Amino acid sequence: MSARETAYYLYCMAPPGGALEFAQAGVFVEDAGAARAVLSEVRREEFCGESAEERLQDLAWLAPRVSWHEAVVERVMEQSPVLPAPFATLFESLESVRGFLLGSRDPIAGFFRDLGGKREWSVKGMLDRTVTSENLTPALGEQSPGIKYLAAKRSQAASKEARSQWLRAVCEQAAGELRQQAPAFRERRVWKAGGPSDAIFNWAFLLPAGEEGDFRQRIARLDERHGPLGLNFVVTGPWPPYSFAPALGRPAETEEPR
User: Fold this and answer.
1) From the CB of residue 16, how many other CB atoms can be counted at a distance below 10 Å?
2) pLDDT digits (tens, 9 = 90+) for 100-155
3) Which residues pair with 185 in a beta bridge?
4) Residue spans of beta strands (DSSP E) within the chain
5) Shortest CA distance to 206 belongs to which of 256, 253, 166, 246?
6) Quick one: CA torsion of 17, 19, 22, 27, rounded to 10 degrees?
7) What pTM does this model have?
8) In whole angstroms, how far apart are CA 201 and each of 90, 163, 187, 192, 194?
9) Spatial separation of the C-alpha atoms in residues 103 and 244, rounded to whole Å
């Protein structure tokens, strides 16, 4: 294939150090002194051109490529601090890769200095509104049956508002407790899963490896405390620090899918 038919796909960056090993074929490292890029050579037409946007909406096409991207980044994380790159970050040449690394030297070095040795943990709040209503409403003093219809409706509205206030207070308190242990915190987009429970928050925390056990115990205590009222805390990880990667900008030679 000619140079115009191929591009270099960036998975992540790593600081200088020992050799990195990969289970995935075709993945290699380009060293620019201050940082290393983990790359593979791909067909440009897969990610660029008129049909790229349509392919990016096709889950059958997208899912295996996203999984491959994540698998490469996680393999690097097992061996080194890692700075993940967004999916489908492409360069025209190895020279442009090296130029990008050198041009972004300061923010990359700052990331590895301050956050590179830490890993991301996801904490989601799953609310079963039926369980919350059944178990929390009596504690909020809902009026007994037999009152008039209008009074009942007013009582229901008051109970709903009280439950909302309870939920906000619980979430604020829980986030505050967890942030005491985590050096970095982000609120992420909430994705609706479509089930008996609704996701009401999606938090990301960055933790040093030695503190992860204590963090999971905090989550377990929160879940034990609030689970009977319908609010469960679900923790997953560790993940590469996707939510904390600095915005390095788009290199001039990079072609994004469009």
Assistant:
1) 12
2) 999 999 999 999 998 888 999 999 999 987 776 666 554 444 444 444 444 444 54
3) 205
4) 6-14, 28-31, 36-43, 83-91, 118-127, 184-187, 198-208, 231-239
5) 246
6) 80
7) 0.78
8) 32, 16, 8, 10, 15
9) 20
187 SS3 class: strand
Find, among 184, 159, 37, the residue nearest to 98 by Cα.
37
Instruction: Give the distance, in angstroms, between the CA of residue 65 and the centroid of all CA atoms in the same chain.
Output: 17
Tell me the C-alpha distance between 170 and 159, whole Å: 16
Query: Are the C-beta atoms of 207 and 215 separated by less than 8 Å?
Result: yes
Amino acid identity of 32?
Answer: A
**Non-local CB neighbours of 53 within 8 Å, separated by 6+ positions:** 257, 258
Distance, in Å, from the CA atom of 183 to the CA atom of 206, rounded to the nearest integer, reads 6
How many CA atoms lie within 13 Å of 125's alpha carbon, on the beta-carbon side? Answer: 21
> For 154-183, how does the pLDDT look when each residue is reduced to its tens digit (9 = 90+)?
545 555 676 788 888 999 999 999 999 898
Exposed, middle or buried by CB within 10 Å (0-12, 13-18, 19+), for 73?
buried
Please check whether residue 153 is in contact with residue 227, taking contact to mean a CB–CB distance below 8 angstroms: no
CA gap 258, 170 in Å, rounded: 42
d(CA 101, CA 37): 8
